[in-house]
Write a structure and sequence with these properties.
The complex is a heterodimer of chains A (187) and B (235). In chain A, 3% of the residues lie in helices and 26% in strands. The two termini of chain A are 24 Å apart. Chain A is mainly beta. The longest helix of chain A is centred in the first third of the chain and has 5 residues. In chain A, strands 1, 4, 7, 8 and 9 form a five-stranded mixed sheet that branches. In chain A, strands 3-2-5-6 form a four-stranded antiparallel sheet, with no helix packed on it. With 235 residues, chain B is mainly beta. Chain B has a single domain, classed as Protocatechuate 3,4-Dioxygenase, subunit A. The two termini of chain B are 17 Å apart. Classes of the chains: A mainly beta (187), B mainly beta (235). The interface between A and B is large, with 74 and 81 residues.
């Protein structure tokens, strides 16, 4: 049997009706191991205006570098309290936030090992299909050898790396278009 | 570690980001080239949800308030398969829609049509082991929007699906057969392949009608298919 995948359609402006019940901004309840991180960012359009109707979803490994999914059969600990999925709906100034633990490293293509990263999906009115990108962590030595960052033109890599602010939170903005446009993937 | 990748979509079956007939894409579509992402463990895994996270009543949008919502009750059901024809079991489906008058229960929707105190318009379901799902709802109304002069959306229900891999995640809209607004709708018309568009239209589903209670529509969904074996991650 061979089917063609169903065509994607926009999430539209009324996504909150369907998605708000499962807004998950705090991914790691007490007891989950790993370095605690708070991530804040804004989604900005081509005119520099905040996008107040976006959904930002993240998917990440736990601090040991294992995904809570049956396909990940690595010999690393799983933590039942940590699913690794977050969903934040942007507010009036286009901002989203997540509180989680820094993921460990997961295998990449061949013998490579990926730097810690969040996998990010972005949905909004005006996007007929989701955007996919990644957020990496600042000052992580593993970034230099990451097999996916290495595919990104060097001058644009910084758009995928969060910035540590003076209060210790990580800031990572999603610029949809224009100068400093975030790198998005063809997935 | 090489993983079996998901296949890329067939041409003209998935929209491009920039589609000026849908005006909001102009300021929100990326302008820089996309970077082709190899599929790694990060892309072929996805969150797993538990059945206890969805209540049995979440699949009946007509029973979420004290009274009955206005409008025509309908059963919406179907199967979720992948492109290889395999059922996609145990995945979360979220739906949302306008009420029978074409008004969303959302502060941004200022369309001059009545809200229905007995209708929120949100539902959830976990596919069973055969990939099946089923909702009871009311038929949504058409409504105007501001994309262009005298623009109207055809009646539709929004669907959000998680797949077994992150790259299978799909958000789409289900339409109704015979809707005269479809050919005027830039969202429905967003891909060149007519067959792909027509797969977004549900079919009238006599077998699932409930005598003296509800008509029924069937909407089958296909998520991306996966290759059998790990490949070198090159296109």
């Amino acid at each position: 049997m061979s089917l063609h995948g169903t065509t994607s359609q926009t999430i539209g402006p009324y996504l909150r009706i369907g998605l708000e019940w499962m807004q998950i901004e705090d991914l790691a309840p007490r007891g989950v191991s790993g370095e605690r991180v708070t991530i804040r960012g804004r989604v900005i359009d081509a005119d520099g205006k905040p996008v107040n109707d976006a959904a930002v979803e993240i998917w990440q490994a736990n601090s040991h570098g294992r995904y809570a999914n049956p396909e990940d059969r690595q010999d690393k600990p799983l933590e039942p309290a940590f699913r690794g999925y977050g969903r934040s709906l942007t507010d009036e100034d286009g901002s989203f936030r997540f509180s989680t633990v820094k993921p460990g490293r997961v295998p990449g293509p061949g013998n490579s090992v990926q730097a810690p990263h969040l996998n990010v999906l972005i949905f909004m009115r005006g996007l007929l299909k989701q955007l996919m990108t990644r957020m990496y962590f600042p000052d992580d030595a593993a970034n230099a050898g990451d097999p996916v960052l290495g595919l990104v033109p060097a001058e644009r890599r910084s758009t995928l790396i969060a910035r540590k602010t003076s209060d210790g939170t990580l800031e990572w903005n999603v610029i949809l278009q224009g100068r400093d446009e975030t790198v998005f993937f063809d997935f | 570690m090489n993983v079996a990748p998901y296949r890329r979509p067939y041409w003209n079956t998935q929209p491009e980001y920039l589609f000026p007939k849908y005006a909001s894409t102009v300021k929100r579509a990326p302008a820089q080239p996309l970077v082709v992402l190899p599929h790694t463990l990060s892309e072929v895994t996805a969150p797993v949800f538990g059945y206890d996270e969805v209540k049995p009543g979440d699949a009946d949008l007509t029973k979420q308030h004290k009274g009955e919502p206005l409008g025509e009750r309908i059963v919406v059901s179907g199967r979720v398969l992948d492109e290889n024809g395999r059922p996609v079991p145990n995945i979360l489906i979220e739906i949302w829609q306008a009420n029978a008058a074409g008004r969303y229960n959302h502060r941004v929707d200022q369309h001059d049509a009545p809200l229905d105190p007995n209708f929120t318009g949100a539902g959830r379901f976990f596919t069973d082991k055969e990939g099946r799902y089923r909702f009871m709802t009311i038929r949504p109304g058409e409504y105007p929007w501001r994309n262009h002069y005298n623009a109207w959306r055809p009646a539709h229900i929004h669907f959000s699906l998680f797949g077994q891999g992150l790259v299978q995640r799909l958000i789409t809209q289900m339409y109704f057969p015979g809707d005269p607004l479809l050919e005027y709708d830039p969202m429905f018309m967003c891909v060149a392949d007519e067959k792909a568009r027509n797969r977004l239209i549900s079919t009238f589903d006599w077998e699932n009608t409930l005598p003296e209670y509800a008509l029924a529509y069937r909407f089958d969904i296909a998520l991306r298919g996966r290759d059998e074996t790990p490949m070198e991650n090159k296109r």
